[in-house]
Amino acid sequence: MALQRVPTRFCRTVCQTHPLHLSGQSQQLVTASAEPETPVKIERAIFRTPEQNPANHSQQDVGQYYTLPPDQLRSAFPHGLPRRFQQQMKTFNESCVMVRQPALEVMSHLKRADYRQPALRYLLYGITGSGKTMALCHAVHYCFSQGWLVLHIPDAHLWIKNCKELLPSSYKPARLDQPVLASQWLKNFGVTNKHFLSEIKTTKSYVWTKRESTEEGRPLGELVEKGLTRVKSSSDVMGALMRELRTQCGGPGGPRLAVAVDGVNALWGRTTLRKEDKSEVLAEELTVVHNLRKMLKNDWCGGAIIATLSQTGSLFTPRTAYLPHSLLGKEGFESLEPFIPVPVPPYDEKEFESCYQYYVERNWLQHPYGHTEEGKKELIFLCNRNPAIFERLCASL
Amino acid sequence: MAAVTATLLKPWTPRLFQVRWSRYNPYYLEPEVRKEVYNIPETDLTAEQRKEQELKAVRPIKAAPASLHSSGFSDPMISKFINMMMKGGNKILARSIMLQTLENIKRKQVEKYHKTPDAQKATIECNPYIIFNQALANCKPVIGLVSIQKGGKYYQVPTPLTDNRRRFLAMKWLITECRENKHRRTLMDEKLAQELLTAFSNEGSVIKKKNELHKMAEANRAFAHYRWW
């Protein structure tokens, strides 16, 4: 059972990734500079960090796990965590995330950015399974714990495929609405940002149908309620909500806004949805995509945009593509430009060791050969230190 | 007279024709994939091992099948089970079902492990390989029944079974039980995981089937002397 059939999407012939820019804080330097943790307390394992607050994570915590507290988990991530991580959370009875260099880089930029300037865009890219979504979740947890308003889209690819109900929009004749999707997203948004719903007030009145409208000065909670009850106009409610947040979070007193999008290349790709006359729907023609694209433009201040590229759920892209230009295409790249590219590499030796120890401690790696040195070398060879492949490999061992 | 000569001139065919048989000449030797065997230094070899090595120098060796590894993670029982589950040569699917089953077993056990208080943690077995082997051992029948004809009637006679036959029966029962007697919409790996976990704790329908076979054999003890081998 040495060469387990790895899901084809993980097979890469080229093992090296090229970072687009060589930043001063290169990942390879981390292993050399990080010394082993000095006084290791007997109660705490070496791969766990004592620092549970993401704001205080620093270079010395790289490669170590911190726990997400369960009460914050339910409000911060109603829909944000990847499916396999959710299974892992259920099995291990705890949710531990590894602190890694790309997430630390994004958080350090977030701490030092000037929020009177237009929003900065951070793009996490890397090969399949290298940990981009988890880095995004780490950054979202940081923003949530700092009291920011979080707009989290867990997977933009789900918006452009497998949609059973497409309604023609009442607002613009050429556009198409996705009522169920939008209402589900609004519900999750309400769960994450409960305390902001009563604070922020609308600045414009919106007319949904002949009989329904929302006046100026009503709290945001009412807007979200309207979207949940009147499912038909939920996509327009989403657009209105995004507009409100854009205008209001820029002000000096307003909360900071974090827009986190996973799989941002979906917004500029092709869709598999068809209109009634069997012609293909362009991404631009979907209301939700159109509104999100407006959100990702850097013409508003007082927040940050963190995005991840993803080949896994994407349509009509080659399996080995991972660089921004190949996944976003010309149009996407030009609309996202200028952005701060953050490469996410697979585990290095220290991180791999930490992950291995974590699995052994949680009783996940059960096979006796896996506990030996040769078994470990075999595992490293099989997964090439790719986090997702290592997790799948250990699942059956 | 003509009929007798016709029977003598008939070409000979064996009474029992093999269904699954190897096309290799018996001259060929089996391949040795275990790394430990090759790591023994020259001086430590016993007389038999030395003889085997000399034989390998002159005799040809069969090609190793694709599913045979030298890795420490390989398990011959699991490989046999995968081969038995395979349909139409789709080894990839059978293997993925098996790995998913092992993962399901491990997930259930590890979840239980992390939720129990520290005192009972030692009683919970989390290793899916141990659970699989133990469940299979629990399902193996000790004695089997063979249909023997005597005096115009067929009797079910209790017989001893070889190890291979017992292992085959246990695996076959597990697989047919999961394929036929479970809910249509559940996936094979879930069904197998449930069945293996119940067999591990000596409950479940396969254990019941084994026990019924034992009871039948016990009931037909009187016919045991009909067996002549």
From TrEMBL, chain B:
The keyword Ribonucleoprotein applies. PANTHER family: RIBOSOMAL PROTEIN S7 (PTHR11205). InterPro entries: Ribosomal_uS7 (IPR000235), Ribosomal_uS7_dom (IPR023798), Ribosomal_uS7_dom_sf (IPR036823). Residues 67-221 form the Small ribosomal subunit protein uS7 domain. Keywords: Mitochondrion, Ribonucleoprotein, Ribosomal protein, Transit peptide. GO terms for biological process: translation. Signal peptide: none annotated. It is found in: Mitochondrion. It holds the Pfam family Ribosomal_S7. This is Small ribosomal subunit protein uS7m. GO terms for cellular component: mitochondrial inner membrane; mitochondrial small ribosomal subunit. Belongs to the universal ribosomal protein uS7 family. The keyword Cell membrane does not apply.
